[in-house]
Design a protein that fits this description.
The complex is a heterodimer of chains A (306) and B (340).
Chain A (H helix, E strand, L loop, with lengths): L1 H28 L4 H6 L5 H11 L5 H13 L13 H36 L4 H15 L2 H15 L11 H31 L2 H8 L4 H38 L5 H10 L3 H29 L7
Helix pairs in contact in A: 1-12, 5-6, 5-8, 5-10, 5-12, 6-8, 7-8, 7-10, 8-10, 9-10, 10-11, 10-12, 11-12
Chain B lengths: L7 E14 L2 E14 L3 E5 L6 H8 L8 E10 L2 E2 L5 H7 L4 E4 L13 H12 L4 H14 L5 H5 L8 H13 L5 E5 L7 H18 L2 E6 L2 H7 L2 E6 L2 E7 H6 L4 H8 L39 H5 L5 E2 L5 E2 L6 H10 L4
Parallel strand pairs in B: 3-8, 3-9, 6-7, 7-8
Antiparallel strand pairs in B: 1-2, 1-4, 4-5, 9-10, 10-12, 11-12
Helix pairs in contact in B: 3-4, 3-6, 4-6, 6-7
The chains are: A mainly alpha (306), B alpha/beta (340).
């Protein structure tokens, strides 16, 4: 197991290099010159050139890229073009906020999604099942920015029971985490339901019944463990989607997390910050995937890790 | 083995299991009667789809429902009718007093639970054993069914075991609570011939030890001849002949039983082609009004197509469902003026 984790960690290195490469060159394709933006409107050509010289933006792209890569491996993500602060410091401030948001969102995705899926699967085609699946369908279909705004309007403006925006207390977490987790919960609910229905038809469930086990033991011990195997994969993938979603949700709820940092930096053509932010998000995704694989193995020993 | 002949442990009376589907009603089991004595091994034979597995699942009320439903009849076990027993009472019987070995050892064990635990959980439930005690008993059961290094195997999951071992685990699981009745649904179909013999021997030995009644469901007449005291032959949801095993092989009465035995390859004869029974089984959705075998029967008469014969006990104790063995047949043949 330890060897597996170590090897997977080593495998992340090429992934991270790939990410830096893609992000670096995509940012070069984005229209707009950071030097011009920094110099401000109406600045003279000399000033712009001076800035370009100073930031090393006039060097060949490949040189810039390898220079950047070398620094990354030394733990230096460069400095913001805007305020000259080290990017790493900025990320260290923002990342915990986003991680907290992501944690509560994925918690909602898992708990709400699995519970709804199980309730549906126990009595398939019943009124409960149909209602739960209808809500799940809505959850998948509604865009999160609209859903977030609606919740904000309803709970914060109308009922005034939850704060509108910001990130101070646990109450501030509820709406953004719901907004971010709802779509995933809907997908997990549908996946859990279909997986449970599939498993309940299996011969070993009949064996469990023939043993005289109680229905809840059959569902939670014999069926669920098997049904969760494909659900774990979906949850892992959802986490990736969720990280992308933080960009939107943090903007809606004015949360100073990693997602918002990236959006602001893109607007400013602040290349080092964008690169650093995306790199951090990718690293998290890679680590989460590693966890998923380990969990997968825990639930299903048939999978060989080697 | 029939020493306690007069103590029936399980009586099935007029059992009907029907499936209500959008294509109509499928009468998978359509009025089955038999009695299982203590210590007896009853074979239920018949081809695929004749209702033998559904009969066994009906006894334990494990029919997938919907669409399946026990539409009538009684299953009397120790004076209780299992068909109408409340669900929680039924649960106490399942796996404890009546247990079952399933046909597919590869899929009938839970793939993510260690096999020892799969045996131990029934013991904790029915025998109120503590965790440790139940585990030790599970290991003991694995040893009893001949699994080498049982302590190690108990901790393994089904995928780490061979097919034969998994079937042994199924048997260990079924016998852990020393049941009064064991239903073995094709316990050896998925196994190699050598393992087959071992498994049958194992069931036989354990039966002697515990004294349970066994219902052996199979389509393999070889298995029947080796293990069963009596045999019920099923055809299209009915029992068409019920006789001591020896009688079935030496003096089969029903034309279908005769056909089955004729279709077996014979070692001492040089056969070019195997014998078959002409025609095919009627659809359970659309059963004929008369004898269900009539259209394939070499002795068929108009009477056979008009009315279904009853399962009638003959002088030698053999029960057979065929007009040929009734007084009506003689009259019918005389009236027609045909002499065979």
């Amino acid at each position: 197991m330890l060897m597996f984790v170590l090897r997977r960690l080593i495998q992340t290195i090429p992934v991270v290099i790939g990410v830096t490469f893609v992000v670096f060159f995509i940012m070069q394709l984005v229209p707009g010159d950071p030097a011009v933006l920094l110099a401000g409107e109406g600045a003279s050509k000399e000033t712009v050139n001076a800035i370009r010289e100073q930031l090393g933006l006039n060097r060949p792209l490949m040189v810039q890229y390898f220079d950047y890569l070398l620094n990354v491996f030394q733990g230096d993500l460069g400095s913001s073009l805007k305020n000259s602060q080290p990017v790493l410091d900025e990320i260290m401030v923002r990342l915990p906020i986003t991680m907290e948001l992501a944690f509560f969102s994925i918690l909602i995705t898992i708990v709400l999604g699995m519970a709804a899926g199980i309730i549906s699967a126990i009595k398939p085609y019943s009124l409960t099942d149909t209602s739960v699946m209808l809500v799940a369908l809505l959850g998948i279909s509604l865009p999160s920015f609209w859903f977030g705004l609606m919740m904000m309007y309803f709970f914060s403006v109308k009922l005034q029971i939850l704060p509108v925006a910001g990130w101070d207390s646990i109450l501030h977490v509820i709406l953004p985490a719901l907004t971010l987790g709802a779509g995933g919960a809907a997908i997990v609910a549908r996946m859990t339901r279909s997986s449970m229905l599939e498993v309940i038809r299996q011969d070993y469930i009949r064996t469990a019944r023939a043993k005289g086990l109680r229905e809840h033991v059959i569902i939670y011990k014999h069926a669920l463990r098997n049904a969760l195997i494909p659900v774990i994969t979906v949850v892992g993938l959802q986490f990736g989607a969720l990280l992308g979603g933080t960009v939107l949700v943090e903007s809606i709820f004015a949360i100073n997390g990693l997602g918002r940092m990236i959006v602001d930096a893109i607007r400013m053509r602040d290349l080092p910050v964008v690169q650093g932010g995306v790199l951090a998000a990718s690293l998290i995704f890679v680590i989460v995937n590693l966890f998923v694989d380990v969990f997968y193995r825990f639930f299903n020993k048939r999978i060989e890790l080697n | 083995m029939m020493s306690e002949k007069n103590s029936p442990i399980l009586e099935v009376k007029g059992l009907k299991t029907h499936f209500f589907t959008k294509h109509g009603i499928s009468k998978a089991v359509d009025g089955i009667d038999f009695t299982l004595q203590k210590g007896e091994t009853l074979g239920i034979v018949g081809e695929s789809g004749c209702g033998k597995s559904m009969t066994s699942l009906s006894i334990l009320r494990l029919i997938p429902s919907p669409p399946g439903k026990i539409a009538g009849g009684q299953v009397l076990y120790k004076g209780k009718d299992l068909v109408t027993l409340p669900e929680d009472e039924m649960r106490k019987i399942r796996g404890n007093e009546i247990s079952m070995i399933f046909q597919e050892p590869m899929t009938s064990l839970n793939p993510v639970i260690p096999v020892g635990e799969q045996i131990a959980e029934a013991l904790r439930l029915h025998q109120s054993m503590r965790k440790k005690e139940a585990w030790n008993k599970a290991v003991e059961m694995l040893k009893l069914v001949g699994i080498p290094s049982p302590e190690k195997r108990a901790k393994q999951e089904p995928f780490q075991l061979s097919g034969g071992m998994r079937q042994r685990v199924m048997i260990a699981m079924a016998l852990a609570c020393t049941p009064e009745v064991l239903i073995a649904d094709e316990p050896t179909t998925a196994l190699d011939v050598t393992i087959q013999a071992q498994i049958l021997e194992l069931i036989k030995n354990l039966q002697k030890k515990i004294g349970m009644g066994v219902i052996m469901i199979t389509h393999d007449l070889g298995v029947v001849s080796e293990t069963c005291d009596t045999v019920a032959v099923m055809y299209a949801g009915n029992i068409i002949e019920h006789a001591p095993t020896e009688k079935i092989f030496t003096d089969p009465k029903h034309p279908y039983t005769q056909g089955l035995l004729n279709s077996l390859p014979k070692i001492h004869e040089d056969q070019e082609q195997l014998q078959t029974i002409e025609g095919s089984v009627p659809s359970p959705y659309n059963l004929p009004a008369g004898c269900r075998f009539a259209s394939r029967c070499p002795y068929q008469k108009p009477l056979c197509h008009l009315q279904k014969p009853d399962l009638i006990e003959q002088n030698d104790g053999v029960k057979v469902r065929c007009w040929m063995y009734t007084a009506e047949w003689t009259n019918h043949v005389e009236k027609e003026g045909v002499v065979n």
